[in-house]
């Protein structure tokens, strides 16, 4: 029981320490790109550890229920990746399209309808990612 709690808390503690160290490094005047790269590397390390440890633990058992649990876990991870990446893509699309739509509307108020369509298309990317996540979770 205590071991499970430690294993659950370890990634959270590691990421918190990494964030604190990145903030301290930025406050000391280090390069912003290096601190962001350090954060990305620490996140990748925690992600790799969290992916590998359950796979190794389930490989030791030959129980069919353990294999089903691993498949469920991979489906949840796939759903999270689909939602996360589609929301990041949608945010980038809206972040580029919305200022252009505002500029076009300020020059010609009649262009509002045409300009808002491009902003909504960027939002659609995130909705598609959410739909893929719902299909991954519930359609098994």
Can you describe what's shown?
With 140 residues, this protein is mainly α. It folds into two domains: 1-60; 62-140, F1FO ATP Synthase, CATH 1.20.20.10. 89% of the residues lie in helices and 0% in strands. It is built from four helices and no strands. The longest helix is centred in the middle third of the chain and has 44 residues, at 64-107. It is flat, with a radius of gyration of 21 Å. The mean pLDDT is 80.
Summarize the structure.
The chain is mainly α and 140 residues long. It is built from 4 helices and no strands.
Give the uncertain stretches in residue-range form.
none
The CATH class of the largest domain is: Mainly Alpha
User: Would you tell me the overall average pLDDT?
Assistant: 80
Radius of gyration: 21 Å
Count of β-strands: 0
CATH topology of the largest domain: F1FO ATP Synthase
End-to-end span in angstroms? 31 Å
Order of helices and strands: HHHH
Q: Please give the count of helices.
A: 4
Q: What would the principal axes of the Cα set say about the shape?
A: flat
CATH superfamily of the largest domain: F1F0 ATP synthase subunit C
The CATH architecture term of the largest domain is Up-down Bundle
Q: How much helicity do the residues have?
A: over 70%
Tell me the domain tally.
Answer: 2
Judged by helices, strands and strand pairing, the structural class is mainly alpha
What proportion strand?
under 5%
